[in-house]
Amino acid sequence: MSDLDPTLPWLDALKWDADGLIPAIAQNEQGRVVMFAWMNRASLQETVHTGNAVYWSRTRRRLWCKGEESGHFQKIKSIRTDCDGDVLLLAIEQAGGISCHTGRASCFFNELHGEQWVPVDQVLKDPKEIYAR
Amino acid sequence: MSDLDPTLPWLDALKWDADGLIPAIAQNEQGRVVMFAWMNRASLQETVHTGNAVYWSRTRRRLWCKGEESGHFQKIKSIRTDCDGDVLLLAIEQAGGISCHTGRASCFFNELHGEQWVPVDQVLKDPKEIYAR
User: Which residues of the sequence carry a binding annotation for Zn(2+) (chains A, B) (predicted)?
Assistant: First the structure.
């Protein structure tokens, strides 16, 4: 993969996959990686314009403003891309301190212990409460 | 996507994509996200068995032990997966403090400033020196 060309218009400089998507990693104020999702051009533009993370939901096939149901919006602090411009890294401020639909701070709560995935992080809020609104 | 089933054998619990791959995010000791790459089953097994990050190179179509050319091996501290088991997060110790082929600490060195990607991190070592061995 050739390196990112920063002289191109910023959206064209990125390498979109065959489906027009790019992976996006969200990292919170404490430096925890909290989420991984996908963006298309429209969602990245929305993200930049609104200042809140907007992803492309591959299952629902629509733009998905993180927090639209849960209230757990992700305020954008900065957006980076990698050397070859095919992944995004979002520094975010996580509303409510919860990024995962299970009510945990991060989606990455399953740790490999020997040959077993063990949920090692605590649930901060019951999902029933989060999605009851 | 249904949530990860931790009662399944650990490799089967993960959701491999149509190409048999899963994205892997590497985070260093300082909490910086330094790399994003792909793994297949064999590379993840190698990673676990050797204790060093081994990825699947989609361009070269072969297992790729990070550091095999540069010496910048990534020692595995822990491996996590997310709520639905379709992404890996590796906590690593980065040999030489350089993860990127450009000689920077992290591959994520391009920051969006207005409508421009700006390389904001410093090159720690000339790539010519890194790959001269």
Answer: 83, 100, 107
Beta strands in B2-133, from DSSP E residues, in sequence order = 22-27, 33-39, 54-57, 62-65, 74-81, 88-94, 110-113, 116-119
Q: Tell me how crowded residue B49 is: count the other CB atoms within 10 A of its CB.
A: 9
Suggest the residue from A5, A10, A83, A120 to mutate for an interface test with chain B (most B CBs closer than 10 A).
A83
Q: What is the pTM of this model?
A: 0.97
Question: CA B47, CA B37: separation in Å to the nearest integer?
Answer: 13
pLDDT tens per residue, range B25-65: 999 999 999 999 999 999 999 999 999 999 999 999 999 99
Tokens 């212990």 identify what position?
A113
Domain A18-130: which topology?
Answer: Ubiquitin-like (UB roll) (3.10.20)
Instruction: Identify which of B9, B33, B101 has the shortest CB distance to residue A33.
Output: B33
The answer to whether the CB of A90 falls within 8 A of the CB of A74 is yes
Please list the alpha-helical segments (H only) found in B15-109. Answer: 41-50
B124: nearest Cα among A81, B106, B111: B106
User: Amino acid identity of A17?
Assistant: D
Mean pLDDT, range A111-122, rounded to an integer: 97
Fold of B14-100: Ubiquitin-like (UB roll) (3.10.20)
